[in-house]
Fold this protein.
Amino acid sequence: MTNLSPERQRAMLRRMITIRRFEEIASEKFRSGDIYGVVHSYAGEEAIAVGVCEALRDGDQIISTHRGHGHCIAKGADLNRMMAELYGRADGYCKGKGGSMHIADFSIGMLGANGIVAGGISIITGAGLAAQMDGNGAVAVGFFGDGASNAGPFHESINIAAAWKLPVIYVCENNQWAVNVPALESVATPNVADRAKGYGIPGIIVDGNDVFAVHNAAVDAIARARAGQGPTIIEAKTYRHRRHTERLDQPDARPSEEVNAWLQEDKDPIQRMITTLQMQEDLLPPTVLENLKTVVENELAEAVSFAEKSPFPTKESALQDVFAE
Ligand SMILES: Cc1ncc(C[n+]2csc(CCOP(=O)(O)OP(=O)(O)O)c2C)c(N)n1
Ligand SMILES: [Mg+2]
């Protein structure tokens, strides 16, 4: 349960639907050849980005992964510039030269998606150290996958963050697979959060498809970090709806019964939130839900049209922005 106001709950639902529709459109436009590079869909994991980011305030920072669109949207990134970047256009976040895995917006505290698995974990630990040194009360949140939790940066970063009591929240999105490798085969403990004991910090396991459970866990971990008590690992159990990437030649090793079970309404994070809201009188009348979906649809149609109208970067711009001034 939650004590969030009805307005905030509806705003969270709207963000989750925006992420889902953004991903559906990105998949479609990838298949039609309009989007270049790669696209890793966040569909099915929306409750994690939205539940956590709703607990943050301005000045807090996050870092993302190769599966980064949901984190960008949850932190308030501009949909037009995101879509234009996927389209490889000059008005995109990286002027069309980065694509899906390089979107960042420092003005909203989004330090970037990242193509290096676990690469973001050390960067966000540095952001936590900076916040501690500045004494500004800000926190830093690092999102990463189950696969990333087996890489060196996870262990090195969390060790030092725990020793120095840095204000960092490590959010493991355990979608149970790293490309085609099941977490059960590659993670030595049953839960990633169990590893927190080894660093002397709390390790919390939540249902990552329950936006309120995620939000409550984030509120507690953030309060702890702001109070100078150090980092927390939150492990959110979830599942990705689509295969690892949209690339057409990529196989999906996941058993189809397993995938189908996670696609059902009772597991879907958006449908679950809608059901919860509708159980409370007047929180989400059908007309309000329809209206909300229409607003999202219009925003995304506008983003696609913005991307389509934006020019490709010029040849001359290829070597610009390579080195810092
Ligand atoms: C350092 C590094 N090694 C390998 C890869 C290739 N790679 C891309 S995504 C991925 C799996 C990541 O799995 P996980 O962390 O669970 O995230 P998920 O894709 O499930 O969200 C791998 C191995 C990479 N990008 N970077
Ligand atoms: Mg994974």
User: Anything to note?
Assistant: The longest strand covers residues 168-174. Strands lie at 61-63, 140-145, 168-174, 177-178, 181-182, 203-207, 232-237.
